[in-house]
Write a structure and sequence with these properties.
The chain is an alpha+beta fold. The chain has a single domain, classed as 2-Layer Sandwich (Muramoyl-pentapeptide Carboxypeptidase, domain 2), CATH 3.30.1380. Helix content is about 55%, strand content about 15%. It contains eight helices and six strands. It has a four-stranded antiparallel beta sheet. Strand 5 and strand 6 form a beta hairpin. Helix 1 runs parallel beside helix 4 and helix 6 packs across helix 7. It is globular, with a radius of gyration of 18 Å. The two termini are about 35 Å apart.
């Protein structure tokens, strides 16, 4: 896998989050909607065209450049609501990645005892993290670790705000896979000169917390 590329779902998730956050909640007069389009990035024709392009790339299983995804992240990082957008994008990424798992496997991970379901869950998490994050997943005890050597959101916003993209994605993926309600900690950050960005999540499946 080319480390200079990312799955096209990554830039698509960032742009979809911008569009969703910038979309008006209520119905407005046509002229007001037009005025909003001129002021909100997510409603612009440029974003619309880019979403169409990346959607087609996802459909064709084509990858996109890491640099292009990082540029979109930096554009988001300039917004005052950057954290909200990154978190929304992470949830979108996790939800779309989860949809690539067969319905039978999804059901098994939720109903089987933990001793049987966790190996299945870890296998899917490792596959999805490689494909969508260029990352690595490992497990130690009741914790799951996600390491992303080349984050597309690194240095995209002050105070490691961009890192909430992966934090939110990991938390949402665990919620979908095992209905986990545990916390996610960004315990190592490349922006703080601590090596690669890494996250630790508590694994607390609600159906059977025992081993």
């Amino acid at each position: 896998m080319n480390s200079a590329s990312v799955d096209s779902l990554v830039p698509l998730s960032l742009l979809e989050a911008v569009r969703n956050v910038d979309s008006p909640i209520e119905d407005f007069e046509a002229e007001l909607v037009g005025d909003l389009r001129n002021k909100r990035l997510g409603l612009s024709e440029t974003v619309y065209m880019q979403i169409r392009r990346f959607s087609e790339a996802v459909r064709r299983s084509q990858r996109s450049s890491h640099e292009e995804a990082a540029a979109i992240a930096k554009l988001i990082g300039r917004r005052p609501d950057a954290e909200a957008v990154f978190r929304a994008a992470g949830r979108y990424l996790a939800a779309e990645a989860y949809r690539t798992i067969s319905p039978i496997s999804r059901r098994l991970m939720l109903v089987l005892p933990s001793l049987m379901s966790r190996p299945i869950t870890l296998r899917h998490m490792r596959r999805l993290s490689r494909r969508y994050c260029n990352g690595h997943v490992s497990r130690v005890g009741t914790s799951v670790y996600l390491e992303v050597p080349q984050s597309v959101t690194l240095d995209s916003a002050p105070r490691s705000v961009g890192c909430t993209y992966y934090e939110s994605g990991l938390k949402e993926l665990l919620r979908l896979l095992v209905n986990s309600v545990g916390a996610v900690e960004h315990y190592r950050c490349a922006a703080r000169s601590e090596g690669t960005c890494s996250w630790r999540a508590e694994w607390r499946p609600s159906h059977n917390p025992s081993e």
